[in-house]
Structures are given as C-alpha cells and as structure tokens.
Amino acid sequence: MTGSRLPPHVQKAVWGRAFVYQMLDLHQLTVEAAGYGLLWNEVRGRLQALTARQVEFDPAGPVSGFLTTLAEDLRSSMMPFPDGGAEKVCSPMLDDIERLLADAGRLRNDPLQTLFTDTLRAAAGAYRACGLPLPDDMVTAVEVSFDHQSAPVDSALPIQVIATTRLGDTPSGVSAHVDIVVSPTYLDELTVFALPYVLLHECVCHVFQGPWGPGRIQADADSRFAEGWMDHIAYTVACDQARALAGGKPASSLSAVPRPGALREAADQVHRARHQPHPRDRAWAARAMGVRAARNLAELMTRLPELAGRPVEAAAAFRRLSLRLNVSEFSNTQRDLFVAAVHKATLARTEHGLVVQLRRYLERDDLVHLVEGTVKLFT
Questions:
Q1: Is residue 244 within 8 Å of residue 350, measured between CB atoms?
Q2: Per-residue pLDDT tens for 2-50?
Q3: How far is the CA of 358 from the CAs of 103, 225, 265, 281, 307, in angstroms?
Q4: Which of 334, 355, 325 has its CA nearest to residue 130?
Q5: Residue 262 pLDDT greater than 90, yes or no
Q6: Class of residue 296 by CB neighbours under 10 A (exposed 0-12, middle 13-18, buried 19+)
Q7: How far are the Cα atoms of 14, 20, 235, 309, 334 from residue 63, in angstroms, in the given order?
Q8: Which of 334, 326, 330 is nearest to 379 (CA)?
C-alpha cells in the first residue's frame, strides 16, 4: 500500500487533538459530575487554540517536541487548581494526557496511515471470513492520500473529514485510491471517533467492490446498494470491531481508544446522518432506501425457520449475502434494482414471494436466483 501523508505542521495539530480528545472523553463525566466542567472546557479550548496556532503559524520542530509542549501547556493552563476537589479529579486526566502524548511522540508510523492499514485489513478480513477469497494483490494495490483544507468541511455529514474512493483498474489488475481530506482547525471529537467507521465504509463498500477484475465501474453517489445497503454492512463491521476492544488503557492508536463506546456512538451518529433528510443532499433518500431494505431483510432472516432463534448465525448469513452481492458479476444497476425490490417487498408487509426466494437461497446458496427472482416479483 502506498500514499501520501499530511504535512508535518498539520500532523502535529491532528495528532495532538486526536489523542487529547481520547483522554478528555474518558474523563469528561467524572470531571463534570464533580462540578468542574468549566475546567474540562478550559482544557478543551486551550487544546483547540494551541493546535490551531500550530496550523496557522507552522512553528518549527519535531512532532514529539510539539506533543510534549502541548501536554505541558494544557497542565499549566489549569494551575493553580481552585481547590483540592479539582486537583483530585483533574490531575488523573492531565496525567493520562501527558502519558498518551509522550507515547504518541515515540511512534515510528503515522497513526492515520496505521489506522487506514488496519481498516483495510479488517475489511479484507470481513470478506475472507465469509469465504470470499480476496486476492492479496488487491489489498496491496490500494493507495491512500491524506490532505487538509483550512476551511471547515461543507458536507451533509456532521464531521470534518471527506473520504472518497476512486477505482483505478488497469488491464494488468484492479486498484483503488482513497482520498482523505481533513480540516485540522475544525477537527472535533465526533470526527476523530468516527474515522474507523468512515474508512470502513470506503474499504468495505468501494475498494473491494466487484467483480474482481479490471474494468470495474464506480457506483454512483445515489446508489441504493453501494451507499445505503453496503454502508449498513460497514456500520455493523465497525460496531463489531469496537465491541471487541478491551478499552481502559491509552494505546496511542486511533482505533484502540480508551473508551470503545465512543467509537460506536460516533459511528451510529454519522451512519444515521447519511440517510437523514438534508437540504443540500439529494441522494439521502436513495441511501435511506438501501439502509431500510438491508435492515428489513436482515430482520426477516432472523424469523425464517432455518435461522429462527439463532441471531448470530442469521447476522452472519446476511453479511455473507451482502458481501457476495458486492463482489458478484451483477452490475451496479442490477444491485440497485434488487435493493428496490427488497424495499418494496418489506415496506408495509413482507411479500410471501420474498420469503420463498430467501428460503430457497439458504437451501441452495444460489445468489443469482435470489437476485433475479426477487427483482421479478415486481416486473
């Protein structure tokens, strides 16, 4: 995997905010409940001012030096403590910030690059876990570029990052390039904690889109399947990953955060925003249809006699069906037609014909018959 990184002065700001946000999130309720929320807000405000200054004026020096100075400045901004109670609840937070920034300063690899590499591997693992033989060279051919902008991100999503995937297949093989643009001055907690889900969307939905051969066609932004149905799959993978984290210990990582619940909460908020009405987003309804159809079919599978009372197996069967469809020989249009048919068949009441098609699929493992038979229910 190849790609480009953020320039050093932006790296410093992004690393500083990302890691300090983790500790602020971990300690927020304890500090607030003790009546010292104003001090917590002062630390957060100081963090944002110092990192914005770094982006604006680009002071010289290594990342490690900036992070060390940042930890010292955040501690000094709270001194002297107003009373013993403040010292009792705020000192552990400042100690954790200092330790985490010290660890981050010793990192050899860019944590953003590491996060993308880990996410790419997790997405590949999800396909392989479903019995889909994802080629190794398809993973290594992926490129990622990180860039920044000074203005806030103007998006229908409530985050300060834009991620897009461009398929770049050649006659010799498949490849993809993922572009990630952040706004360091406006980088907030939601953006930082949503990053694993945002990158999983790109990898699960687009990077590994099939059929696996040169000449893949990029799905449209209003694709019911690629941007709706498959986003639901990416969201469930992100939640599964967050649940698997132990938490509690700072790890100078953007994925193994001290409070894993923050990742699930951020993924949920951004995932919901993707299919909510927005005045500048005309594609929201198509995505909403895809998500609703996916959820409805996943729920229907739990009620089928073949999977009733076995929710874990039902969820695995639905994920396998979805990933198989994403890498299949079906065109983007055919996949969208399947989603539209499932949505219509489960909108008010479940069409018996869909139940028949789904049970036959579970019996015969015939994806082609399932897709074509479901679409024919309304043609």
A1: no
A2: 667 899 999 999 999 999 999 999 999 999 999 999 999 999 999 999 9
A3: 51, 18, 32, 33, 11
A4: 325
A5: yes
A6: middle
A7: 11, 14, 33, 53, 49
A8: 334
